[in-house]
Automatic annotation (TrEMBL):
Lineage: Bacteria, Bacillati, Actinomycetota, Actinomycetes, Kitasatosporales
Sequence segments annotated as region (Disordered): 172-202
Secretion signal, residue range per the UniProt entry: none
InterPro entries: HD/PDEase_dom, HD_domain
Annotated SUPFAM superfamilies: HD-domain/PDEase-like (SSF109604)
Name of the protein in its database record: HD domain-containing protein
Domain HD: from-to ranges: 26-129
Organism: Streptomyces cellulosae
Length: 202
């Protein structure tokens, strides 16, 4: 299975995040695209909307990277980066907004699933990559599994949690209470000497 990203903008998005993301987070982002595309094909998602989904998946954790480590939560920083990327490449504002919502809400259970096709698919794909394989159905699973295996996990849970917590330690406003980053930060502060086992709030 050749790994493609829906078109020229998707390919450019992949080239960009490949330069800025931690390897584990990059692999996770590509896996999320493969999973989201698998789900999207079941809904006959195609054309510009499919390519926008690729951009959303590739950028969904871009807020953990140094170029996008701004004052806001990593999800919002990544969403702003994705929308700016699409705007720079002449994409319409309505698709840019859908991508923004998909990235900004991907850690918001019960909300992303009800905000439209792209936020729902990104959210479900993230869940699937972290174990909810029951969401995928059976059709095309062999080909999907083979594609996913090309992108090893590389201890993504630790890499992503550490990246989010490191930002929050520098700027606690990036991890407000009751948010996913806030939960990671609180768990880290409650046992900052912990070694191994990962962040219990992941």
């Amino acid at each position: 299975m050749d790994i493609t990203f829906g078109g020229a903008a998707g390919d450019l998005a992949h080239a960009y995040v490949r330069e800025i993301l931690h390897p584990a987070i990059l692999h996770h982002s590509v896996r999320v695209w493969l999973l989201a595309d698998h789900l999207g094909r079941q809904q006959d998602l195609k054309g510009a909307e499919r390519e926008a989904l690729a951009v959303a998946c590739l950028f969904h954790d871009s807020g953990t990277a140094a170029p996008h480590d701004g004052a806001q939560r990593f999800e919002v920083e990544g969403a702003d980066a994705a929308r700016a990327f699409l705007s720079e490449h002449g994409w319409p504002d309505d698709l840019g907004q859908q991508v923004w919502e998909a990235v900004a809400l991907h850690t918001s259970p019960g909300i992303a699933e009800r905000m439209g096709t792209l936020p729902r698919l990104v959210r479900l794909a993230v869940l699937a990559d972290f174990g909810r394989t029951d969401l995928l159905g059976t059709e095309g699973r062999t080909e999907l599994t083979e594609a996913l295996e090309r992108f090893p996990r590389l201890d993504i849970e630790a890499a992503l949690a550490d990246a989010v917590v490191a930002q929050a330690l520098r700027n606690p406003e990036k991890a407000p209470p009751s948010s996913w980053p806030g939960g990671l930060l609180a768990a880290h502060l409650a046992d900052s000497d912990r070694t191994g086992g990962g962040n219990p709030a992941f």
